[in-house]
Amino acid sequence: MDLDSGAVVEVAQGKDAQALVPFWKRLKRSRAKIEAVATDMGPAYIKAVRDDLPKATLVFDHLHIIKLYNEKPIDLRRAIAREANALKKKVFKKGTR
Fold first, then answer.
1. Which are the contacts of 15, defined by CB distance < 8 A and separation ≥ 6?
2. Which pTM was predicted?
3. Which residues belong to any copy of the Transposase IS204/IS1001/IS1096/IS1165 DDE domain (predicted)?
């Protein structure tokens, strides 16, 4: 989005770096004017932006950050449950009473 005009500059389809190739081609010399790029947290997009716009600030939208933040406790709970189940199977083997 152009912060001066409010116009959306690009919405790329796909999750790989190739999705941004048409955008980079259209930009050509105006790349130097780009100060920041907002994107999701996909590794391919992050790498593409860092490679093609090394001076631009990379910004992640808050929706993706909050989603990631909310998933961590769930992932931790599941890991603890798996570990507890494995430990329980080792300690309380069937038929050992």
1. 42, 44, 45
2. 0.56
3. 2-94
Buried b (16+ CB within 10 A) or exposed e, 54-92: eebeeeeeeeeeeeeeeeeeeeeeeeeeeeeeeeeeeee
For the chain, domain boundaries = 1-60, 62-97
The dihedral sign for the CA sequence 63, 59, 10, 7: positive
Collect all residues with Cβ–Cβ distance below 8 Å to 58 and sequence separation of at least 6. 36, 37, 39, 46, 49, 50
Lowest-confidence segment of 5-9, 64-68, 77-81 by average pLDDT: 5-9
